[in-house]
Design a protein that fits this description.
Blueprint (H helix, E strand, L loop, with lengths): L10 H6 L2 E2 L8 H12 L4 H8 L7 E12 L4 H17 L3 E6 L2 E6 L11 H13 L3 E17 L2 E7 L3 H10 L5 E4 L2
Helix pairs in contact: 2-3, 4-5
């Protein structure tokens, strides 16, 4: 899915990647309307409004399905192609791509304002990732009660999620061999 926009360069991409600094951006009324239209389809409208007005809303609690992947490659271009495939498959399966950091991707369901994903969405995405990337990916996935919303401070906010024991998820991922998939149960 491609987005067309006419916001100042850099603002839209930072908003879509969930990194916002209140002090760096002053929105025009037209930019506010465009940001609202795009983000309200993904994020709770109250959160969008609070973001645009530099207000912080309470975090939302609920069940969060998460998938954390690590891809490999012999060249940076290959890693880039693999991580792009992860993001593409996540979007096709209705997941939210939260973070892409080098070869690491963090994906989730249950954190956005859109309707709940169909039953089996997470296992379906995990299977597609493993099928498409095979020995070039390792995956840890699971579900837990957690919180989502704007995390951070005045100097920088990020729309993201928190689940208990996420550090253990990353520990499991670090120990897995490439090509492996493991379900994390807190």
């Amino acid at each position: 899915m491609a987005f067309r926009h006419s916001l100042r360069p850099g603002i839209f991409s930072q908003l879509l990647t969930q990194r916002v600094s209140r002090e760096r951006f002053m929105f025009t009324s037209g930019e506010k309307r465009r940001v609202k239209r795009v983000r309200e389809n993904l994020v709770d409208p109250k959160t969008v409004e609070s973001l645009l007005n530099s207000e912080v809303q309470p975090l939302k609690s609920g069940r969060i399905d998460f998938i954390v992947t690590f891809v490999s490659g012999t060249e940076p271009e290959q890693v880039s192609e693999h991580i792009a495939k992860v993001a593409e498959l996540a979007i096709q399966h209705g997941a939210t791509v939260y973070h892409l950091v080098g070869a690491l991707a963090v994906l989730a369901y249950g954190t956005q304002a859109v309707a709940s994903p169909p039953s089996g969405s997470r296992p379906s995405l995990v299977a597609a990732l493993h099928q498409q990337l095979g020995a070039d990916i390792k995956i840890v996935h699971g579900a837990a009660d957690g919180c989502s919303g704007l995390f951070g401070a005045k100097s920088g906010l990020s729309y993201t999620f928190f689940v208990p024991q996420f550090d253990r998820v990353l520990g499991v991922l670090s120990r897995l061999p490439l090509g492996a998939v493991e379900e994390f149960r807190p």
